[in-house]
Amino acid sequence: MPTQPRTVASIDADDLPPGSVGMRLASDQYGVRTADGERADSEAAAQSTYERVQQFIATARKRWRQSADYEAELRKEMLDDLRFYNSEQWPDNIKMDRVLDGRPCLTINRLPQFVRQVLNQARQQRPAIQYNPIDNGADVDTAEVLQGIARSIERSSKAPMAYNTAGEHQVIMGRGWLRIRADWIADDSFEQEILIEAPEDPFTVYPDVAAGRPDGSDAQWGFLIARVPWHEYKVRYPGKARASMIDWTSIGDEAAEWVNENGVLVAEYYYIEMVAAQLAEYLVDVGEEQPLKLTTYKDAIRDRDTKPGPDGEPPLITILRTRPTIRRQLKWATINGIEVLEGNEDKTGGRSLPGPFIPLVPIQGEKLVVNGKRNLRGMIRDAKDPQRTYNFWVSAETEMIALAPRAPVIGAVGQFETTKEQWLLANRRNFPFLEYDPVDINGNLVPAPQRNPFDANVGPIIQATQQADMDLKSVIGMFDASQERSREQSGKAIVARQQQGEQGNSHFLANQALSIEQVGRILLHWIPVYYDQPRIIRIVGIDDREKDVMVHAGNPEAAEEMAAGVQDNPLFKTLQNGALYDLGLGRYDVSVSVTPSFQSRRAESVEAMTQLIQAFPLAAPYALDVLTKNMDWPGARELSERFKHLVPPEARDDEGQPDIPPEVSMQMQQMQQELQLAQQQLQEQQQTIEAKQIEQEGLQKIRKMELESNERLAEIKQDMELAKISEKAKADRLLQLLEAKLDEMSQQAEFLHERRMQIEAPPEPQKVTAAPQQRQVSESLNYKDAPPDIRRQIEHQAGLQPSKMGALELAERKAAAQPKTPAAGSKPAPAAGGKSFPLPKAKKKPDLKKK
Fold it and tell me: What is the mean pLDDT of residues 215-232?
């Protein structure tokens, strides 16, 4: 068995007066009327108007009291956050003690700079409302028109100011409020406009305590308490009682001026009423081949559209099927303490407003649920202790430095009796002189009082102040790189620290985007109601450009009649494509895009297009008009219009061009064909010329290549001749070296041969005399007496061991060591009593070249 539909927040039977729609639904089953429901209707009809009003006021009072009691502790913390942000940062008892003692009590409020940084970041990246079609009855063009109407509403109602106010309350104390309402465009107009506002005092809003979504889309009721001046109250509500509603105030809005003689306290009461309805699926003929299949509530379909035309035409709408359902219907009433000031016709309840949502949208900060109690907090809540610590240490430093030259005065008892008041004020005021009693209480003479000077050691206090400063930044999540100072040197480190500060507080911006999305959802339900009649309205595009469109909501006949009546009106020519947009047809989804503002994006586009033109100059004719149009300096638009004439014809658009008569169009087409033919002939001639030019260029290249090849061959031949000459010179030099080496080796061989023959020859017969025997020994030929280098060569070739110095060599060295002075005219004697043997001369080697 299917379960009975339930509302988001439960409604007790005691919360609604008997006979109300909510009570009837409580007794119904699945949208079918029951006996209990019929009985409730009869009881409601039997009730008097006074009783219904009192029950309505009692229900509203009960709901308000429920909200006030549930949020009492939360409102107290929020109010303390707001006061702390307002530089009320010293506890009352400590501040009073320091003031009475004459001690400094400084407040160096550093919190506004952090709050302003988050708010300014939100201003630069304001979420933009977007509508997207989600069924076959919706289209992209109508979605763009809806977006333009939403932007126009934001501009006309100064919604950015409301967003900033609500965002400031969100960041400071954890919750801000946005309000959507409708009002007359002017006092003498029958048309209404939609406005987006923010309550100046967020404590005047009392929400449904059962609503749990951060955007408040599931709220069942809500109150907005306001003060109306007495003279305005008498004009707006003539004959109404002046009820004080003093019991309709709670923490945060309990100032006495709310109930004084200058104003009357009233409450705007919004609530959702669950209405039994029939959901219908139907086909609608829109002039196309296939009709559209749509879904809506049956009471929104006009009866005449479901009947055939007077001439037998098929009906415009054909209902396919229906089913019972429950619809959320928004109600609104203005009440004082005892009666309904504005509401339905008999002033027993609220009147219907479009949409199923309460038009009080919260912007929440950080949300926590502790022990079943909802707790909302902003940036200030956790920053109180570091800020108090910072104030204390700054005050202590100031006090120590300021009072250092005013140390306590030391003197005897009785020295200050005559001018005691001056001495008590000596550390606060600068007296030109101070008198003292020169004797003590015993009458003894004593010296003058003296101060006990000391050096103020503020080093530890400065360190504590710096630590408090670091704690404050850590708690908030913003550091020096996110502000004006930075220790980082590299650009990447600075950007990383800035991103860390932005990400630490990005949840505030995310919640703002959710709330603005809810505002767009409410506007989507309100726009077709307040723009139902055909009218020409001005919308705002995404580029902040305005344009006029004709819209209606479910009145195509009236819209076509109006369009036919303004065909000759110059204003009609400015309409976008002359189309009619049905704002009540189709279903659309709501989303937001968090992007930089249009001014920031325009500056980025100018920079990007400038770089593109510098890199690709041929794109200048196609982009100069757009580039100058996005520039922000006087004369940019005029210059952009002039640059449009430089755009090639194939890249131009027809926006703003007048209609061309048919005969002129035919002449233009004929001229265009002739121009194309002439261009084709010119192209052929150009191709012929280019072919001849290519042929001439080819011949010139061939000639050039032949000359280059001849020059190259000559260079190669010259290099070869030079190489031959060089190689011949090298060969001659090597041959000469070889011949010299052969001569040297031949001489050495002949010398060795002669020495060998001398050694192997038999010795000559010796004489008996002693002198010849000594000469025989000295004249004997020994190879060791040869020069050292030749002796070593002989020993090497003979395979002998290298010998020591020979006898002749030893004698020569000994004679050199003991020189003798010869007599005058005498000749030097031969060495060692023997005659020396000269080396044989080498024979001349035959010339090898002749052979």
Answer: 89
